[in-house]
Specification:
S-adenosyl-L-methionine, 13-stranded antiparallel beta sheet, catalytic activity, globular, alpha+beta, 4 iron, 4 sulfur cluster binding, seven-stranded parallel beta sheet
C-alpha cells in the first residue's frame, strides 16, 4: 500500500518506494488490509497544511517523514462511513492547527485510492453527488419567492448554496431530512465549534452562526413546507446555530401549530440535551426523534470538550431517559476519534450509558478537529486501546438491539447489518 502525498500545488502522488502509515491518537500505526476499503463516492481528498507524511521506506524498513516539501494527504468521508485511522503525519509548524475536518488515512493500492474506514450505513441519501445544483437553485428561488419575508429561508439559502450543507439543501429540495435552525445562543462552549470560535482559539470557524431569533410563524412555514411526505424529517439543531433547546418556547409553539395542521412526517431535534426541563416540554409537544450529541460517557472527557454551562452528563442522561420513556426514537450523535473512542474505559462507559438510556441508534460521526489540540485537551488513556474496528465489533455484540449507523433514520430503523 503506497504512501499518498501532495506537492505544494496540491497535486496528488503515490510513492512506490514508501509504505503508507496511519495514526491512532498520537501513535503512528501500520494499516491492516482488512481496515481498507476503496475510496467511497462523495469522498474528498485534501492536503494537510503544515505537515509532512510519515511512512516506511520499503528498502531500509525505516519509519520516517518523506523527504522533500510535501504534505500529508487525508480523505474526508461522506456520511455512512466511519474512519478507522487518521493519516500518518508530523507537523512542520506545531503552532498551526489543521482546519476543522475529519481526516482519514488514505493509501494507493491495486490501482486506486483506499481509505481506512468501515461502512456503517447506507450513504446514498447523504452522497453530495446526489444534490443536483440546478435543481437546488430552482428550489431556492421558488421558496425565497414564496416566503420573501422569512429570514430562515434567506439564512438557509446561504447554507445550501454557500456552504453546500446537504441538510439545508434538502430543505429546498423538499426531501428526506431538512433543517429548521432556531437558536443563536448555546449553553456549551464546544472546543472546535464549527459555527462560533473565540478570537484567540486558533481555529477559523468554517461557517457563520445565525444571528437572529426566528418567529414562530417563520418556523411553521419551513416545517409545513417540508413535512409533505410520510418519511420526511424536519430537524432543529444545525451546525449553523447554537443549542436549539435554549429556544424551547418558540419550538413548542411551532410544533403545536404544525401538528394541529398535519400529522405527516417526523419532527427531530439535534441537541446536547443538557436543559432537561426544556427537553421535557419539547418532548411533550409531540417530538418524534431526538439525537443527542456526545463525545464520551466519562465526565472528565465530556466536560473538557463541551465545556457545559449549567448542566452535566447526568442531565443529558435524564433527558434521554425521559424521551425514550415517552416513545421518542432516541439516538446519539457520537463524535468519534481513533485512539480515543476505542479506549477500554471509553467503551465500557458508553456501553453502560446506552443501556441505561434505552437508545435505539448510535450515529458514528467522525470528529472534525485538529488531532494534536484535541489530544492535549482530554484525559490520557487509562486502559487498552482496542482499535476502531474491534470497537465497532464490541458495540455490535454488546448492543444487539441498537442500530449502529451514521445519520438519523425514520423509525423503525433499517435492520442492523453484522460487521
Amino acid at each position: 500500500m503506497n504512501l499518498v502525498y501532495a506537492d505544494e500545488q496540491g497535486n496528488l502522488f503515490d510513492h512506490p518506494d514508501w509504505i503508507a502509515l496511519g495514526r491512532s491518537g498520537d501513535m503512528v500505526v501500520e494499516l491492516m488490509e482488512d481496515e481498507l476499503i476503496p475510496l467511497p463516492d462523495g469522498a474528498t481528498m485534501v492536503g494537510l497544511p503544515h505537515t509532512r507524511p510519515i511512512g516506511i521506506h520499503a528498502a531500509s524498513g525505516d519509519m520516517r517523514p518523506l523527504p522533500g516539501q510535501y504534505q500529508a494527504v487525508g480523505a474526508l468521508l461522506p456520511q455512512g462511513y466511519t474512519r478507522l485511522c487518521i493519516p500518518g503525519y508530523m507537523k512542520t509548524d506545531k503552532t498551526q492547527k489543521l482546519p476543522l475536518f475529519g481526516y482519514s488515512a488514505v493509501v494507493w493500492k491495486d490501482g486506486g485510492f483506499y481509505v481506512a474506514a468501515q461502512k456503517c450505513d447506507d450513504p446514498e441519501r447523504w452522497n453530495p453527488l446526489n444534490c443536483d445544483p440546478k435543481e437546488l437553485n430552482v428550489g431556492v428561488e421558488r421558496l425565497l419567492a414564496k416566503y420573501p419575508e422569512n429570514r430562515l429561508y434567506q439564512h438557509l439559502s446561504n447554507c445550501a448554496l454557500g456552504y453546500e450543507c446537504l441538510t439545508a439543501s434538502n430543505t429546498f429540495l423538499q426531501r428526506w431530512e431538512g433543517a429548521v435552525p432556531v437558536s443563536f445562543s448555546c449553553n456549551a462552549g464546544c472546543y472546535g465549534c464549527i459555527s462560533e470560535q473565540p478570537d484567540d482559539s486558533g481555529f477559523p470557524a468554517p461557517q457563520t452562526r445565525m444571528n437572529f431569533k426566528p418567529t414562530v410563524q417563520e418556523l411553521v412555514d419551513v416545517m409545513l413546507e417540508h413535512l409533505n411526505a410520510p418519511d420526511s424529517i424536519i430537524s432543529f439543531g444545525q451546525g449553523c446555530e447554537g443549542e436549539p433547546s435554549t429556544q424551547a418556547k418558540i419550538i413548542i409553539d411551532a410544533m403545536r401549530e404544525v401538528r394541529s395542521r398535519t400529522s405527516m412526517g417526523y419532527i427531530n431535534i439535534n441537541t446536547n440535551a443538557g436543559l432537561t426541563d426544556h427537553i421535557r416540554g419539547i418532548v411533550d409537544a409531540g417530538l418524534n426523534l431526538m439525537r443527542v450529541s456526545t463525545i464520551s460517557a466519562l465526565d472528565d472527557h465530556y466536560n473538557a470538550y463541551y465545556k457545559p454551562r449549567g448542566y452535566n452528563l447526568a442531565n443529558v442522561e435524564k433527558s434521554l431517559r425521559y424521551a425514550t420513556d415517552k416513545g421518542v426514537y432516541t439516538s446519539i450523535n457520537y463524535l468519534i476519534f481513533p485512539g480515543v473512542t476505542d479506549r477500554e474505559e471509553e467503551i465500557e462507559a458508553m456501553l453502560g450509558f446506552v443501556k441505561r438510556t434505552g437508545l435505539k441508534l448510535i450515529q458514528m460521526r467522525n470528529l472534525n478537529i485538529d488531532p494534536e489540540s484535541y489530544l492535549e485537551l482530554i484525559p490520557k488513556a487509562q486502559g487498552e486501546i482496542y482499535g476502531m474496528k474491534q470497537m465497532l465489533e464490541i458495540f455490535a455484540d454488546e448492543l444487539p438491539d441498537v442500530v449502529i449507523g451514521s445519520y438519523t433514520h425514520v423509525p423503525p430503523a433499517p435492520i442492523k447489518q453484522p460487521f
